[in-house]
Amino acid sequence: MQNGCGAQQPILVVDDDANVASAMAQLLEEGGYRAICAGSAAEGLAACRLETPSLAVLDIHLPDLSGYEALHQLRAEVGERLPVLFVSGVRVEPYDRAAGLLVGADDYLIKPFAADEFLARVRALLRRADTVAASEVRLTIRESEVLALLAAGLEPADVAERLDIGFRTVSTHVEHIMGKLDAHSRGQMIALAYRDGLVTAGTDPTGRD
Q1: I need a surface site. Which of 48, 72, 181, 209 has the fewest CB within 10 A?
Q2: What digits encode the pLDDT tens for the residues 28-37?
Q3: How many angstroms separate the CA atoms of 32 and 45, rounded?
């Protein structure tokens, strides 16, 4: 097993052809990701136990398991929402692609493939996964009120006064919201909230004019 360098989202690449795996890893790292390469399903599963990947690229033909079985085992290990991109240079017919999608893959790419198409497929799957994760964000009623007032332009002290709560309580709510949205600043938190439909412009959550 070989880990690529970098500090971006980890992408698991499982392919028993070392040259192909290395080429995909290089493309991923050039695209800003960090590749984790494995030559078998067993190595891929072992890698997942050390670090959860954001996406898995699986060859259909592996030395120990089929890509189909590897997909199910990876999802059992990591979670059902792990995006999986099948790649194959052998199963290249339309019905092969259909079968791969039917067993649960999110996309299917035929080898050899163009570098830009490979990266485009990876980015699309990661965006989709991020959208699903964001849609599942659950805020408490008070967190929603705090977030909406901050998005409307109020400062934390004004939010505390409007909701009749302490300034420290507002700060705690903000910390919780930022954690749920994976935001690193108040500005990013508000931007993500608008993007994900958690707040709507012009709405006062307290019902006051």
Answers
A1: 209
A2: 999 999 999 9
A3: 23
Rounded to a whole number of angstroms, the distance between the first and last alpha carbons of the chain is: 61
**119 shares a domain with 154:** no
pLDDT in tens, 59-99: 999 999 998 999 999 988 887 788 999 999 888 888 888 99
- If we measure between CA atoms, which residue out of 113, 112, 23, 16 comes closest to residue 66? 16
Contact between 177 and 141 under an 8 Å Cβ cutoff? The reply is: no
8-state DSSP, 66: B
Q: Is the pTM of this model over 0.85?
A: no
Instruction: Name the β-bridge partners of 66.
Output: 61
pLDDT confidence bin for 107, thresholds 50/70/90: very high
Contact by Cβ (8 Å): 120, 92:
no
**Which residue, of 96, 118, 135, is where some domain finishes?**
135
Per the document, the length of the chain is: 209
At what angle are helices 167-181 and 186-195 packed, to 10 degrees?
Answer: 60
- Tell me the C-alpha distance between 21 and 18, whole Å: 5
